Amino acid sequence: ESGMFTYDPGFTSTASCESGITFIDGDAGLLMHRGYKIEDLAEHSDFMEVCYLLLYGELPDKDQKDKFLHDITYHTMVHEQLIQLFRGFRRDAHPMAVMVGVVGALSAFYHDSTDITDPHQRMVASYRLIAKMPTIAAMAYKYTVGQPFVYPRNDLSYAENFLHMTFSVPCEDFKISPTIARAMDRIFILHADHEQNASTSTVRLAGSSGANPFACIAAGIACLWGPAHGGANEAVLQMLDEIGTVDRIPEFLARAKDKNDPFRLMGFGHRVYKNYDPRAKVMQQTCHEVLDELGVKNEPMLKLAMELERIALEDPYFVDKKLFPNVDFYSGIILKALGFPVSMFTVLFALARTVGWVAQWNEMIGDPSQKIGRPRQLYTGAPRRAYVPLHKR
Ligand code: SDX
């Protein structure tokens, strides 16, 4: 029977869907959302516009943008009861563990937007998720550091509001630098969507059974957490910490190349890109801008990362295997400079990717050819055999 199926572990050559949202040419290092290059969006657009673009297929005009901002900000608060849920976690819980739990629990708070057969309810659920993710992510941070939760402010931009909820405390005036807010917004744009990556495929597979959107996004968050995927931004910083100084780079490169050593260069390599990840370029440039703005000259970690990149890209192993820095390589250095603890890095990825997840989920549910996702297998277990009673085993 096994001959009936194509066997493609890791889906390296299997398309799981038709999609009109994001296009990647891995050999050229090209990424486009709805036909717009990521570099253009990162330079000229803002995250709310990119959200609208991913959800609706076009950039908004002025009225559409105003309405979208109004509708998103309408949903920024979370149900007050959710605070009790946060308090059930240990203070030292990893914020990604908290995110999986809290976002999954949203379906228990917002029953009125879980009917996936109704396109309007699907959009309300999508808006709720995009609007509430910064609030929940900031709460996850506040809970770990033991500070009071900060309510959203709808007069601020999406990125500013997130920085406000994360870093402001009631006893002090909090000022957000426009460069920092712009950098945060750009980081969100760079993470917004990336076609059928593991977490998006997880959201689609979960959604294909008709599960509610909040549960599906929680599944996506769980998948993103792994160090081979979104968890790599956290792992990059841990790796740079471990390497410590430029003179130890060759030793770690040798380990990355050694098949008997499980160590891999975190933030390097990609299933689709066999060229520079265009997001990593913008990220590196943003990194310089942020460090300049913060007055950090010669940040040793950035120097170490750039030196690591330079040496790796001259090494035949990385050249032959076409291993380049990916989106996660430089993001952690910026996030650290902005004051985020390492454990929050993947949470920020999840926050920004939420729009991609809901856009892809909406596209799938609205597709009449959609079926439940149900891969087959090649059975490798025992052949049929007779049952042996316990006393004879
Ligand atoms: C993200 O898919 C997406 O779009 C994801 C993402 C998104 O926006 O959603 O772009 C976000 O997840 C970025 C990737 C973050 N992960 C890391 O940085 C972790 C380190 N990188 C990898 O483990 C790896 O490169 C993957 C997981 C990203 C890709 O894995 P593949 O496509 O399954 O490739 P592979 O592991 O089979 O590698 C091919 C070869 C192997 O050598 P050979 O067995 O052929 O001799 O390249 C080697 C690997 O050993 N290799 C590496 C390496 N990555 C691959 N060697 C050393 N260091 C590395 N980082």
TrEMBL record:
Signal peptide region: none
InterPro entries registered for this protein in UniProt: Citrate_synth-like_lrg_a-sub, Citrate_synth-like_sm_a-sub, Citrate_synthase, Citrate_synthase_AS, Citrate_synthase_bac-typ, Citrate_synthase_sf, Citrate_synthase_typ-I
Gene3D superfamilies per UniProt: 2.20.28.60, Citrate Synthase, domain 1, Cytochrome P450-Terp, domain 2
Keyword list, A-Z: Acyltransferase, Membrane, Transferase, Transmembrane, Transmembrane helix, Tricarboxylic acid cycle
Family matches, as Pfam families: Citrate_synt
PROSITE patterns documented for this protein: CITRATE_SYNTHASE (PS00480)
GO terms under cellular component: cytoplasm
One example of a Gene Ontology biological process annotation: tricarboxylic acid cycle
Pathways involved: Carbohydrate metabolism; tricarboxylic acid cycle; isocitrate from oxaloacetate: step 1/2
Keyword Transmembrane found: yes
UniProt keyword Transferase present: yes
GO MF annotation list: citrate synthase activity
Membrane-spanning parts: 329-352
Catalytic site positions: H270, D328
Catalyzed chemical reaction(s): oxaloacetate + acetyl-CoA + H2O = citrate + CoA + H(+)
UniProt family annotation: Belongs to the citrate synthase family.
Name listed for the protein in its UniProt record: Citrate synthase
This protein's encoding gene: gltA
